[in-house]
Fold this protein.
Amino acid sequence: MAISLNSDPAVSWKAYEKHIFRFAFVYFILQAVPLDWKYYKHLFSVNWLNPTFADLFNSSRYTPQFFRQATSTDFWGLNTLADWLIVALIAVIAALVWYFLENRKRIQPNYPDLYYLLRVILRYRLALGVIAYGLIKFFPLQSPYPSLSNFNTDYGDLSAWKIFSLSLGVAPTFEAVLGGLEIFAGLLLLYRGTTAIGAFIVIIFHGNVFLSNLAYEGGEAIYSLYLLHIAAFLFLHDAGRIINLFSLNKPTQPDGYKPVYTHAWQRKLKIGLKSAFIFIFVFVFGYKTYAASKARPYHYPVAPGLSDAQGLYDVSEFSRNGQLHPYSKRDTLRWQDVVFEEWATLSIRTAAKVEPWLGGIETIHRNDKDRLYELAGTTSRHYYHYHVDSASNTLHLENKNPNYLDDRFQLHYERPDSNTIQLSGVDSHGDSLRVVLHRLDKKYLYEEAKKGGRRGGLIL
């Protein structure tokens, strides 16, 4: 059913339009305006004289959430369609109360003004969402370049979502183009005359994002649908006129509504709020995102790893409880290879299948051990966050996978030469280990292709 909520003050609203609007107004206000105290707690905790990249992104990520207790690192929680149902039920009740009060002449709302106000709120909410995601794509951060462990993980040991993300990560120019398109759509939404164009771009773009999340089992399906249904509501305002003009070749009247400001300060307030929004969430956020892109991507830890240890290591000797385990593709206890990342992550591949962590919503974590992108969707490697006690030459390791939080142990290390690391210690089960690692001088086809350039061919 086509719905055209009339914004022309010279045209009276039909009864069914008022019924639809009462529900839509309450529903979208609850969806777009933060009513959760945790959101305002976050806002007041931000140093707005020098906000961080994470502060600004997390401020853009709010959605109403009822059924999941947020954590310190994921303070908005993972919203679900059940949350939408609660919002819709509240909107139905509020719309019935509104109708009762209006029918009894207790209130006399100005529907064109309320409709204009609702569209303004939704325009800026949608612009904030798409600009935030556009910036982390434009400065390629959302899908970072694969880690060394990722390069040494078999294709079949990665989830569909991780393969999709890694494929985007090796094409930063394409990722930046996608981000530029989102930013462009967000900027169009800031102006009433170009809202329909911006909303249409968001519908096409986030329709694809939504389907991609469903197809590849990503964690952003509901949030992309959240942005999508706001864009659809905004586009609906001009859909009839666009169809008449371009498809049916009929005469079309422009939107006749114009907001009236009875006091000069109201217009100044509008200009001031709009200017502040653009300054903070376009220029400041853009600069902060650019600065973050020059450092390590936020998905990867920051703390440096063991000095001069980065690389892929063959496990040349492995003993458990004094028993030597020769190399075997079927031995689930023996380590097959080890990767030391540039940062403080050590990954171990074994024949035993790992219960994968399948990821969640896009969240920027402050603590290194909470940054789980590198291990997400992996079924053959255990990833350990570690810190180095250089006084005793000891590595303290803890498994980053939320499914293996009890997997912690410490290993004493020796480095007889620059390419050999000898480890000994006790694992989380109390078994003694002795492991000898030898660094391999492995060449990676994609890396060599980059060195060769687009026309220079591969250097093998």
